[in-house]
Amino acid sequence: MDRAGADMWASTFTLAMAERKPQDVWVLLPEHSLVPGCLDGGGVQYLLVGLSRVP
């Protein structure tokens, strides 16, 4: 994702969380070691993706 896309996503996330949990402070920190399309061999990313789909 390019910088403009990341900034747009961060802005959208911040607005959504401010509406849902205004008492909390949310900060997105970039993880520079992540590679798009390459899942971690430990399965943590897979687990997070799977759990994010649970209603």
UniProtKB/TrEMBL annotation:
The lineage's top-level taxon is Eukaryota
Which named protein is this? Receptor transporter protein 5 (putative)
Q: What is the lineage of its organism?
A: Eukaryota, Metazoa, Chordata, Craniata, Vertebrata
